[in-house]
Design brief:
mainly alpha; 2 strands
Length: 244
């Protein structure tokens, strides 16, 4: 992948606009008029966070946390059936068109490519710290920490992106929540089949990481957006009970 494409991937994966403000499902409201969020923006956000989940999963799959042992092609081939179910679920719950779904291929996460320590640093938002010298970023002990933190962060963002897209598509909350819970279960297992991650833990992290900013009295989210997120909080809790 050439450098402009790599920078495009970094930009979409690290942009906070969609994660923090698209929760209102409108880019800007002025009186009775609003501008819908483009499908492309929603799809890029969903597939960027999914890309982090898949890359981290491929590293965890090695059991060594040595990046030289990572084969995205092998990992994707072994988990092909699960990925197929996951992509079908995303298309159904987000109502993405064929063009929206094609963005997953455009970003390139779901095909053979190199997994680098720099991207693991991105997925984990630098929470594990940046070692000195920088070359130690590829050390297995550092990679393992980045994978653990990155899995938590990207699964939480993935859930936010799915809910946002479903709200924008005006999908009925109870049906969508059941589908999202299933999608999140597949994604959690892809990220770490050891059971460390689960849809229940991702939901709890999402609840504290994203809902306060949306439901805060001074939030710019319109009341319709707040109501939709409250509904998803309720319906996801119902779908994941009694594990919550």
């Amino acid at each position: 992948m050439d450098e402009p494409s790599r920078m495009s991937r970094i930009g979409w994966a690290s942009t906070d606009d969609l994660h923090e403000t698209v929760g209102v499902c409108k880019q800007r409201e002025a009186g009775a008029e609003s501008t819908p969020v483009p499908e492309e923006s929603l799809a890029r956000s969903v597939f960027a966070s999914l890309g982090g989940v898949v890359e981290i999963g491929a590293v965890n799959f090695t059991g060594t946390w040595k990046l030289a042992d990572v084969s995205m092609g092998d990992f994707l081939a072994r988990r092909g059936k699960d990925l197929g179910r996951l992509m079908d679920g995303i298309q159904e719950v987000c109502r993405f068109s064929a063009l929206g779904m094609a963005i997953a291929d455009e970003l390139g996460y779901l095909r053979e490519h190199e997994v680098t320590p720099e991207f693991l640093l991105l997925w984990s938002a630098g929470l594990a710290g940046i070692p000195e010298p920088f070359e130690e970023l590829a050390e297995p002990r550092v990679v393992r920490r980045m994978c653990r933190m990155g899995a938590d962060l990207q699964l939480t963002r993935f859930l936010q992106d799915l809910i946002t897209a479903a709200i924008c598509a005006e999908v009925e909350e109870r049906a969508a929540a059941a589908q999202i819970a299933e999608i999140l279960g597949i994604a959690s297992d892809l990220a770490d089949p050891s059971g460390r991650n689960s849809p229940e833990s991702a939901f709890r992290m999402w609840r504290v990481a994203h809902l306060p900013g949306i439901l805060h009295p001074y939030s710019e989210a319109p009341e319709s957006g707040r109501a939709a997120f409250r509904a998803y909080d309720h319906e996801l809790e119902r779908a994941l009970a009694p594990a919550i």
